[in-house]
Amino acid sequence: MRRPPHPSVRHDGSSLAIDSFRVKREPIKPLKLPKPARPKRRQSFLPLAIGTTGGVALATIAFWFFQDQAERVVAGRADRYDDIIMDTIHRIDNPAMHAVMEAVTQLGSHAAIGTAAGLTALAMLRKGRTQDAWTVVISTGGAMAINTILKNIYQRQRPQELARRIKLPTSHSFPSGHSLLSAATYPIVTHHLVQDESVATQAVAHTLAGLIILSVGFSRVYFGVHFPSDVLGGFAAGFGWLGLTSLSHTLVEKSAES
Q1: Where are the chain's structural domains?
Q2: Which of 46, 62, 125, 200 could serve as 191's disulfide partner, Cβ 3.0–4.6 Å?
C-alpha cells in the first residue's frame, strides 16, 4: 500500500506555510505594568481630616468629660480643687504678666473668634469651597449658641470676690465661653492657614494653636472671672462640638460623592 506524501513545509519570513494553510505569527505585545497608586492627598479641611471615626471618638470623649465636670459643679465636688488652683495662680501678680494675659484673653472673645472664623470662611468662598465655608460659619455660630444655652442651664455664679484687673462679665460662669469658642474654632482656622505646608509645619502650627487655647483658658482663671472647672467644661464642650461638626461634614461630603 502506498503512503501519501508528507505535506510540504516551507518557512517564509514572518509566516509558516503548510500546504495551503498559512499560520501567522502574532507580534508580541509589551506587558503593561499597573501604574503605581498615587499617595492620598492630605485633607485641606480639618473636619475631613478628623473624619467619621475621629469625629465620633472626639465628640464621645469630650461630651463625657463635660458631663462629668457638670455633675461635679452641680454637686459642689469641684469647689475644692477650684479653690486650690485659683489660690496658686493668684499668687502670680506682676505688671508684665497682666499685660500678656490681657492680650491673650482677648483671643477668646466673641469679636476675635467671629473675625477669625469670618475671614477663614471668606477665604474659602474665594477658592470655591462653599460647603467648607458654611461649615466654619455653622461651627462657630453653633459654638456661640451652645455656650449661651449651657450657661442658662447651669446658671453658676462667677467668683466675684476673686475677680481682678478686668471687669467681671454679667453672664453666668459655667462653662467658660472663651475656652469653648477657642476650642471649637481655632483648630479649623489654623488648619486652613497651613493646609498646603509640610506635615512638620502643620504639627508646629497646631501645637501653637493648642497653646493659645490653653492660654486663653488660663487667662480666665488668672483674672478670676472663671473657676478652673468652668474652663475645663468649656474646653470639653468646644472640642465635643468640633467632633460633631467634623462628623456631620464628613457624612455630607460622602453622600454627595456617592
Answers
A1: 46-82+96-257
A2: 46
Torsion of CA 123, 126, 130, 133, to 10 degrees: 10
Among the listed residues 196, 205, 215, the one whose alpha carbon sits nearest the alpha carbon of residue 105: 215
Q: What is the pLDDT of residues 120-149, one digit of tens each?
A: 999 989 988 888 888 889 889 999 999 999
Give the global pTM. 0.79
Sign of CA pseudo-dihedral 247, 253, 257, 258? positive
- Give the sheet arrangement for strand 21-24, strand by strand: 9-12, 15-18, 21-24
Over the stretch 95-108, which tens digit does the pLDDT of each residue have? Answer: 899 999 999 999 99
Output the CA–CA distances (angstroms, integers) from residue 255 to 199, 248, 250, in the order listed. Answer: 28, 11, 9
CB 139 within 8 A of CB 184: yes
Kindly tell me the sign of the dihedral angle through the C-alpha atoms of 222, 202, 195, 248: negative
* Out of 61-75, 211-225, 240-254, least confident range: 240-254
Bridge partners of 233?
Answer: none
Q: Which strand (E) or helix (H) includes residue 21?
A: strand 21-24
